[in-house]
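Can anyone check this?
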Amino acid sequence: MKKVAVLFLCVLLLFVAACSQNSGKRKTNAVSPVVPTQDRQNNAVNTGKSEQKGMPVEFNINKEGLDASILELYNGINIKITNRKTQVAQEKFIPFMTPVKLEGTPLTITVTNFLPDFVMTEGGYTTRSYEPNNPGAKVKITGGTPEFEGWLFVNFPDIHPYDNPDYNVVMINADKK
């Protein structure tokens, strides 16, 4: 009987010790991501209000999936296109949702989405603020091989770049109004 009691006390002590290890950890307050997010198919989800760094941000998504407030602050993006063979480069302004033929190339580019402070979330992607801290633009490039539909980033030009043997296309900045 003593052996059973000792065994019971040992198990009880192990249980109490294991439970008490988590009680000393400090809890952190997570900041909820800004909404709306865009799912990976570029559809707006979870529109409404959220808080980031204590400041509420109101989003109004238009039918193209672009935030109306972003359209009030930004005209489009500026890109730099370089001919890989001649190393001749040109800069070009690309307005939102307007196909633009890139002179001297077979390429046409259209900006289909823009986030001035791009961030990935569980549900897709969104912007943390209206400031151009991490500008990202979803673009569609046609007329070249391969055709491209993806994101270009000012701060990270080598992440998912346009993979064309003749031309290098990078986003250089956001064009504010």
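Reply from J.R.: I decoded it. The helical segments are 2-20, 68-73.
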